[in-house]
Design brief:
The chain is built from three helices and eleven strands, in the order ββββαβααββββββ. The termini are far apart. Bound molecules: flavin mononucleotide.
Length: 208
Amino acid sequence: MAKEIWKPGNLLNPVPAVMLSCARPGEKPNIITVAWTGTVCSEPPMLSVAIRPDRYSHGIIRETGEFVLNLTSARLVKAADLCGVRSGRDTDKFREARLTPGEAPHMNLAPSIAESPVSLECRVTQILPLGCHDLFLAEIVGVLVDDSLIEESGRLRLDKADLTAYMHGRYYRLGEELGTYGYSVRRKPPAKPPAAPKKKSAPKVRNA
Ligand SMILES: Cc1cc2nc3c(=O)[nH]c(=O)nc-3n(C[C@H](O)[C@H](O)[C@H](O)COP(=O)(O)O)c2cc1C
């Protein structure tokens, strides 16, 4: 396979384009779409979001130390795009994107987005200036899950949430499952012995 050598760039793909909701006293709540986000620790559960200091949301998150990350289902992609191209300085994005501020029991002010299938309530633990973006490290202090995704057994069916990915400037719906964690090394169930060849039965003789 021949390869071209390119200059350094952000080609880690695909990524989730999530909607971060936040609020500070005396102002309408806001939503910023964030693709530079990731899981960074399991215990405690933590994630990161990288946000440019000139974003309206940056000041809100810095001041309040909290936000909610809302996962984007296919029906919310248009709203996520809108929240990524309009600023809360100029518009009420909840209203413009027809989204509803939802419950967020662990937050002081930040709402969740009621229409999102999964919302992660986050408390900021560190802010690292990196360059053009500041990295907010945050602990996930609460999780809200659409109850239609939970089976009677308690199993979460995230595969039913119709989640999306963002890749090189385009949004995609997730597709086919290709395997499960560890399936490459999992012992396969013993193959069934080949069926014994069928004995040729004598031709049926009909009674006249
Ligand atoms: C798909 C997508 C992903 C984005 N990811 C980020 C990101 O990770 N960090 C960031 O600072 N801005 C990101 N943006 C841009 C902001 O969402 C955008 O500037 C937004 O208008 C800022 O809103 P605010 O001024 O209300 O905070 C993204 C935009 C889109 C459309």
